[in-house]
Fold this sequence. Notes:
alpha/beta; Rossmann fold; 8 helices; 16% strand
Amino acid sequence: MEIIIQPTVEAASTIAAQMVARLLREKPDAVLGLATGSTPLLLYHELVQMKLDWSRVTAFNLDEYVGLAPDHPASYHRFMWENLFNRVNILESNVHIPDGLTEDIPGFCLRYEQQILAAGGIDLQLLGIGTDGHIGFNEPTSSLASRTRIKTLTQQTRAHNARFFGGETAVPHHVITMGTGTIMEARQVLLMAFGPDKARALAEAVEGPITSMNPASILQLHPVAKIVLDEPAASRLRKADYYRWVYDNKPDWQKL
């Protein structure tokens, strides 16, 4: 893991955007794994402002709520099109987001895995982290070898996401999500975490044991995992000073 601590959300998002932009410039037909939620919003805004060429990019989203139509205000389809896809020149045919209305969830999940494989695999997978350490919607105790599948959300996750639905009772109980095994096959992983609420889960994922109780901890085994944080999210890292020193003393070309 490479731990990159920045003073603010804005500074951290800029570094993350530069990493994605470098990939798109070096590989115009890159395959991106994308995330939703508040964490990547500034990253997407910066990518839009960079005026990059997305015409050959393929995108696969991590997850979607079961039972939500694409135009539902809280659906991840709507989030991605409003915050990124409608603002860049990506082809609609190259956008893949789990179908929350599919009548055959196991069949859909198998096809999603096959589509990722047919695209050549994911070059860079963007992630956030939940307050309990989940990545995608791989909740604690999820198999660390899991593939795209249906998952039942914990009460903690439903409560955390209630603000997007106007109350917890409206939050779906199930999602379709890439598995941790799927995520680990990406050639590069970029995890972003902001704010003090993420500090405990992040510290356990980076400096604790590899365990299904904190699914993000599996990233310790990934060959190219970059963790971009603001100071509050880094506040419980025991070796934070060391991570800062390492990043500050890298060659410029290696920092991205």
